[in-house]
Specification:
10 helices; binds pyridoxal-5'-phosphate; alpha/beta; Aspartate Aminotransferase, domain 2; Aspartate Aminotransferase, domain 1
Length: about 290
């Protein structure tokens, strides 16, 4: 329950909060970065960087020194692929530096090549203090999570431990499981050997061209995307998420699976995809969007 409440507390997903009541105290959420003005923006929207000033207002309200850390997904994934407005992450970094707040990038989705760079931190040129990692760490073949930290944080933790004691004692049954570690090592080797991240970068334009070609279909409300990650949002019908759920099933019946969150389908091709696979995905998406 602690783990569930931690994630639910930090994320801005209202349905999760309504279902799981045990959220942690002393967590406040900034606004998401979506705005109608940004509809059909490819890449980073021009408008909206000032939303980062929500953090500045929290500093003024609660006192910057009382805020330990700020968690953001560099591209918000499960809320429907919200690409950060230009300057947004830079402004967050600046406010964090001014107030001694740790900046944490949740790179569970964006990490390991999805943006065309190894990490979104590099794609957007903003360096966090910590990064949470999972999914592509093992290509999803084995469950594994990791936290990458700056040297100064690593040293703070390890140097605070009593001599000969375990530096960061915790006791999950499956910590450092050999099968997961083996999967991670092989996955990372393959990423390197197959140049997966640069392949993702090379395929990005073709992928986004295909996705944005769907923009004139009647059922489409918005299209967003960056790197090899995109979203097609259908116009809501019968309440938020109802049409999205139908779209997911209809797409499955076309022979393609994509996760829908609310009314947005998250499209994230595998890095081994070739142009013909992208074409096939777009054909299936188009066919589904014409029917629903
Ligand atoms: C961005 C992001 N962060 C965190 C999580 C949760 O990760 P885990 O299942 O490793 O706790 C998810 C799960 O989908 C996610 O998409």
């Amino acid at each position: 329950m602690v783990l569930i409440s931690g994630g639910t507390s930090l994320s801005g997903m209202v349905k999760n909060r309504e279902t799981f009541s045990g959220v942690m105290p002393n967590v406040v959420c900034m606004r998401h970065t979506f705005d109608e003005e940004q509809l059909f923006t490819r890449g980073q929207p021009e408008a909206g960087y000032e939303l980062a000033d929500d953090l500045q207002r929290f500093c003024e309200t609660y006192g910057g020194s009382t805020i330990a850390a700020v968690f953001v997904e560099p591209i918000a994934g499960s809320t429907g692929v919200l690409v950060p407005p230009k300057g947004y992450l830079e402004r967050l970094r600046q406010i964090c530096d001014e107030h001694g707040i740790l900046l944490v990038f949740d790179e569970v989705i964006t990490g390991f090549g999805r943006t065309g760079a190894a990490f979104a931190a590099q794609a957007f040129g903003v360096t966090p203090d910590l990064m949470t990692l999972a999914k592509a760490l093992t290509n999803g073949a084995q469950p594994m999570g990791a936290v990458a930290v700056q040297d100064k944080i690593y040293k703070t933790i390890t140097e605070a431990a009593p001599e000969n004691a375990i530096e960061f004692a915790h006791g999950y049954t499956f910590s450092g499981h050999p099968a997961a570690c083996a999967a991670a090592i092989v996955t990372q080797d393959l990423f390197k050997k197959e140049a997966s991240f640069s392949k993702a970068a090379e395929l990005s334009d073709y992928f986004l061209d295909g996705l944005f070609d769907l923009k004139n279909l009647n059922s489409v409300r918005d299209i967003r995307g960056y790197g090899l990650l995109g979203a097609v949002e259908v116009k809501a019908k019968g309440g938020v998420g109802v049409r999205g759920a139908k779209a997911q099933i209809a797409l499955f019946n076309e022979g393609m699976h994509a996760k829908f969150t609310g009314d947005s389908g998250i499209i994230a091709p595998a890095f081994v995809s070739e142009k013909r696979h992208i074409d096939e995905m777009m054909d299936k998406l188009r066919s589904m969007l014409e029917k629903i």
